[in-house]
Design goal:
The chain is α+β, with helices and mostly antiparallel strands and 194 residues long. The chain contains 4 helices and 12 strands. It has a 7-stranded antiparallel β-sheet with strand order 3-2-6-9-10-5-4. The longest helix has 10 residues. The radius of gyration is 21 Å and the shape is globular.
């Protein structure tokens, strides 16, 4: 009888060891990202005849050619069922005076659109009024990552406020983005430039 050659399992053993290594606790991980400032946006869409939206601080630019952006959303979010089937949606990048809008769209169990302050595009998706800019995008991928999904979009159209204004209904002033850092809203501007 001939002995079978020994199988090299060192690669598999190394992968298993990596999966057993110590990792940050959820609280330690959150503490790290509380120190990382993020722009604030509202993601919105039409689902089953009604608008759905939520606050997102995870929006990132992925590629300029093709124009791709992405955001993450917990699989336990009340908005996930709508996002899981959405074809198109909007991302409204909030201005520094819209901290109340951000707080409203981050609150669970309420009609986030009831207080107004939004409009529909000709294509039907909701956008927040008075924002610095918005992007309408087509969902191209939903990738499960941990207990969340990374949702990738191809940018189809956009609108950006002109220099020094937020929109036609807001008095002229230096437009500034809403920023979230360490559980507090901030504004940036000339005073914060280095």
């Amino acid at each position: 009888m001939t002995a079978e050659p020994a199988t090299d399992l060192s690669h598999l053993e190394a992968l298993l060891a990596e999966q057993d290594e110590p990792q940050l606790s959820p609280d330690a991980y959150k503490a790290v990202f509380r120190q990382h400032p993020a722009g604030v946006a509202v993601v919105a869409l039409e689902h089953e005849g009604r608008p759905v939206g939520f606050t997102a601080t995870s929006v990132i630019s992925v590629s300029a050619a093709p124009p791709l952006l992405a955001f993450s959303l917990a699989s336990t979010s009340s908005s996930w069922p709508a996002i899981s089937t959405a074809r198109t949606l909007t991302v409204s990048f909030l201005a520094d005076h819209q901290d109340g809008v951000s707080a409203r769209f981050a609150t669970s169990g309420i009609d986030r659109f009831a207080d107004g302050g939004w409009s529909r595009l000709e294509t039907g998706e909701p956008v927040i009024d008075g924002v610095l800019s918005w992007v309408r995008g087509r969902v191209v991928q939903r990738t499960p990552v941990g207990d969340s999904y990374l949702v990738s979009l191809r940018a189809l159209s956009s609108r950006t406020a002109g220099p020094g204004t937020v929109d036609a209904t807001t008095p002229a002033r230096a437009a500034s983005p809403l920023v979230y850092h360490d559980r507090t809203y901030h504004r940036i501007g000339d005073h914060s430039a280095l």
